[in-house]
Amino acid sequence: MSGIASATPIAHKGGVAGAKVQALTVLDLLLDGKTIAAAKDYFVNVQTKDTKYTPFITKDDKPATFLNADIMERYRPLQRPLYYDSSKYKTYLEQLGITYPTVKPKPVSD
Q1: Which of 10, 21, 56, 82 is 20 to 30 A removed from 64 (C-alpha atoms)?
Q2: Which pTM value belongs to this model?
Q3: Nearest one of 79, 99, 101 to 90, comparing CA atoms
């Protein structure tokens, strides 16, 4: 739901109802098995029967990394301290000094 759709209680109820419809529809599709197969068959044999996909990028094209070379040259030294060092830390969160879970449990009272 977008933020503006939840601005009023009735809008929130409508957004929740719509989300439920979408979720249950997906659930129906996943549990049915026949509907997805029929949709795929229709897509392949009817809707795109005479359509041939022609990619713009070939397997021989290389990424244009040169376009970002100056940006990477400027920011890579700033990123180096943030690289994960597996020889010193078990996890990246440990390297950053973050303990998980971050929510502290309530103390047990006697």
Answers
A1: 82
A2: 0.39
A3: 99
